[in-house]
Specification:
The protein is mostly beta strands and 124 residues long. It contains one helix and eleven strands, in the order E-E-E-H-E-E-E-E-E-E-E-E.
Amino acid sequence: VQHLVESGGGSVQAGGSLRLSCKADIYIGRYYCMAWFRQAPGNEREGLAAAYTDGVTTYYTDSVKGRFTISRDTAKDTVYLQMNSLTPEDTAMYYCAANYPPCTPITAAQYNTWGQGTQVTVSS
């Protein structure tokens, strides 16, 4: 059973934008923090942003602050990641994750439920 299902990845040219979506089951949508991570080949999984259950409170890591925006639609049990000004360095598998609060730190150890990931490729 997939509790988190990501979509929206794809290929884009540098400078472009993508919006990722992560649909959660009802329980996760109601009680869990939801976050976005990414992992490029040979790199550790990197936390990007997280959203609290209220659909308003958000957290970011410095690496994407100002370029990426996380949002959460509590009615749809879905979290989004709007990514702007993409560069080839943003190429990675992007994962949605969830766990009970607190939402921070946004580290892989803090989250125990994971989606299968969606690939983002940015060409120069």
